Structures are given as structure tokens and as C-alpha cells.
UniProtKB/TrEMBL annotation:
Transmembrane segments: none annotated. Gene3D superfamilies: Winged helix-like DNA-binding domain superfamily/Winged helix DNA-binding domain. GO terms for biological process: regulation of DNA-templated transcription. CDD domains: HTH_ARSR. It comes from Pelagicoccus mobilis. It holds the Pfam family HTH_11. The lineage of its organism: Bacteria, Pseudomonadati, Verrucomicrobiota, Opitutia, Puniceicoccales. This is Transcriptional regulator.
């Protein structure tokens, strides 16, 4: 059973936490896919998923795949987000609200600009030793993961990179203050260097499961 802090107790806690993280980073999966990933039986996975479903962390959908019985695919519910921390949620929301109400919109914009400058400085230091765009994107993904974004970098056959963030540790603040997300593209483009184009192609605040950025050299 889950505890208030999002963890699980009992002998199965590690497996169930792994299943939650798998669905968080990979999206909808069948019991067979998860079983192969963890090296256990499909029956064992189904038992775990039924327990997670009973407390509202996952839901499922049957889908036809050719002949035979439909396959059940599992996915996280909104309630499951409690297992993935939203850093200092209430404090950040209060501070943003106070800045805007007491000091005004202009002061809030200045605060967000200063935060973006600080991010560029910190990321710039992390990427200082990276030469190629591939190395830079990889370093940026690592830095973002350390901040709680569960980020990963991939490259397609045509040389285009994708930075994927499977979690947003400041999602509530970003929802309340759209300026936080608005400045991310400029931060990424700045630290990745001139001649680099960054485009957000998936966005959690628009209903997507994750945030994803398409990164390529400008033509």
C-alpha cells in the first residue's frame, strides 16, 4: 500500500515503484512488456497493476491487436503524480502570487528573467567541456535530470536531437505562471550555442504526458 509520501511499504514496494517509473518514462505499456523489462511473469505484473489500480494510481484500456483477445494497456492516472515530487509546490505558488500582487507584473517578469539568467549561467558551466551538439544535449539532459525532470536525450537517423522530460518538478508553479515555461526555450538555445534551433513539440501543460524538445542546427 502507498504511504503519504508516495512510497510503498511491504515486500513489493520496490517492484511497484519500478512499474510507476516505467509508465512515467515510457508511457502506456502492456503487462507483457513490463514483465519482459523486469524479468518476471505477466501474471505477477497483473497482480501488481491490480493493486496499483485499486488505489487509483493506474488505469487500463483494452485494445485490439490483430486476431485474438484485446491487449490491456496500463497508464498512470493524474493521482499517480503524487509519487513524483513537485518541488516546494505551496511555497513557490505563494511566493509567485505575493510578488505579482505586491510588486506587480513587471517585478514578476524581472524575477523570471533573473532566474533564466541564473539557469543559463549554471547550465553554461555544465556544458563548458562539451564540444559537439550531441555532447551538449547529453550534458543538458543530465543537468535537468539532477533537478528532477527525469530527462533523457536521443538522436534520430537524420541527426535531429530530442530532449525529453518525463516529469516536471515545478509543474504547479509553471501552470500558475506561464512565464516559467516561456523562458525555457531561450535558455536552452542560449546554452546549446549559436546556430541551434530548439522547438517544444510536446508540453505537459497542454495535456501531453511529457515535455519534449526538438533540437537541430539551424539551416
Amino acid at each position: 500500500m502507498p504511504l503519504k509520501n508516495g512510497s510503498y511499504k511491504g515486500p513489493n514496494w520496490a517492484t511497484r515503484r519500478s512499474l510507476l517509473e516505467m509508465l512515467k518514462t515510457r508511457g502506456e505499456l502492456s503487462s507483457q512488456q513490463m514483465a519482459e523489462e523486469l524479468g518476471v511473469s505477466s501474471m505477477a505484473i497483473r497482480q501488481h497493476m491490480q493493486e496499483l489500480e485499486s488505489v487509483g494510481d493506474v488505469s487500463s484500456e483494452d485494445r485490439a491487436q490483430g486476431k485474438g483477445r484485446p491487449t490491456k494497456f496500463w497508464f498512470l492516472t493524474t493521482k499517480a503524480q503524487r509519487h513524483f515530487p513537485d518541488r516546494h509546490r505551496d511555497l513557490i505558488l505563494d511566493l509567485l502570487g505575493n510578488v505579482k500582487s505586491v510588486l506587480g507584473e513587471e517585478a514578476l517578469d524581472k524575477l523570471l528573467d533573473e532566474r533564466a539568467e541564473e539557469q543559463m549561467s549554471q547550465y553554461g558551466k555544465r556544458l563548458a567541456g562539451a564540444g559537439s551538439l550531441e555532447e551538449k544535449v547529453g550534458c543538458l539532459a543530465k543537468a535537468r535530470s539532477e533537478e528532477g525532470y527525469m530527462a533523457e536525450a536521443t538522436q534520430s537517423e537524420d541527426g535531429v536531437f530530442e530532449l525529453v522530460e518525463n516529469h516536471c518538478p515545478i509543474c504547479a508553479a509553471a501552470d500558475a505562471c506561464k512565464g516559467l515555461c516561456a523562458r525555457e526555450l531561450s535558455v536552452f538555445e542560449n546554452v546549446l550555442g549559436p546556430g541551434c534551433k530548439v522547438e517544444r513539440v510536446e508540453h505537459m501543460l497542454s495535456g501531453a504526458r511529457r515535455c519534449a524538445y526538438r533540437i537541430e542546427k539551424s539551416k
